Every structure is written in structure tokens, then in C-alpha cells.
């Protein structure tokens, strides 16, 4: 995290750190060193008030920790073992919709791909910032999301607004929209050359389940084998 001027608000609210307020946060990222780095960046800012109450490295851990701690904001990576950030959002939808103290989600990811951004926003995240964000801007983004604002990295805000500007706007990718989140995870790993056993270990599922997902992906995309699947994924820069 290094670049400044990272956060743009889509709803210029009254949020912002300071004023003696605090916000309880859960960090969800499968890289322990990154989680440690985020805590260090937050601690080094001039503004305080962010309390990290839990961490998680995969989908199941995230759901467990979020349910147990009921944070005000979750910093959520997009690509996680067990189904990805969208799966966390799906399983925590009731907490996000709670009338009192809803859990709000801010995606924090290295990816700035359209499908990732649109996917988590459709899933219910209040914003999306990239990992180049500074600690100060991240603290500000956390407080603003806690207050109900929508917050995006400036470069992402434009195409997010474009994607949702029209109610009849087409999906980002009609073929990808046919796949479930888990099928997309399997697709990416297959395209990267992972064996079925390795995919099963990565996603905490059985080899038989991996085979079922691959069959479903091939059927939905009308492909014949994993070589065609790899070419399809490479053409869409999913690898």
C-alpha cells in the first residue's frame, strides 16, 4: 500500500476518521503477511479509532469470525479459498441486512478487473479499493463505509457507475454469468494448470466435487475438454 489520493466517494457523506469515534473491523485475506501489514499501516496513521477484532484466511473462517464478532466493517479480499469474497457476502447477507448495526463490507484487493469489482458490488459490498491505498486513506474509507457511504478507488468508480447506469445494461460477460462463484474458482485453477487433487486441497472440497464442477463448467460453456477451457479462460484474461 503506497499511493495517495486513493479513495473516491460515490455518496459524499459525513464520514471520516477522528472525532473520538471507533469502528470494529475484521480483516479477511488469505495472506497472513498482508493482514499484518494492514494492521501496521492502520496503526501508523495519525488518526486512530479502527479496532481489528478478528482475522480470517478463507471463506469458512470469515463467516465464523464475522458471525461471532459482528464487526461494523469487513475488509474483504476478492479471491479466497473456499469460494471467494462473493461467497462470504452471500453467506453473511442476513448480517449485512440487519436493521440495527449492519455489517458492511469494503473490498480490498490487488485486482482491478471489471468482473471482480462488479461481482462483489452486486454481492452487496459497499465499496472497492485496491491494495495500493495508503493507511490514512484506508482508515478514512473504513469510517465512510461504516457511515453508509459507497467508496471506490477513483479509477474504478467510473466503470462501476457505467455498469449500473442502465437497468437494461448487459452483464459484463454472459458466459461467466452462467457459472456459479465456485465454478469460477475451479475454472481459474484449471486454467492455471492445477491438478484436480491440488484444486480440491485449495478449495477444501473433494476431488469428486472438483470433477463435478469441471463437468458443469464444460457443459455451460459448451467446451469439450480442459485444453479448450484453458484457451477460453486465457482469452478472457482469467488466468
TrEMBL record:
Phosphoprotein as UniProt keyword: yes
Pfam families hit by this protein: GerE, Response_reg
SUPFAM superfamilies per the UniProt record, alphabetical: C-terminal effector domain of the bipartite response regulators, CheY-like
Every HTH luxR-type domain range: 172-237
TM stretches of this protein: none
Keywords, comma-separated and alphabetical: DNA-binding, Phosphoprotein
Residues that bear 4-aspartylphosphate: 77
Domain of life: Bacteria
Response regulatory domain boundaries: 24-146
InterPro entries registered for this protein in UniProt: CheY-like_superfamily (IPR011006), NreC/VraR/RcsB-like_REC (IPR058245), Sig_transdc_resp-reg_C-effctor (IPR016032), Sig_transdc_resp-reg_receiver (IPR001789), Tscrpt_reg_LuxR_C (IPR000792), WalR-like (IPR039420)
Name of this chain's protein: LuxR family transcriptional regulator
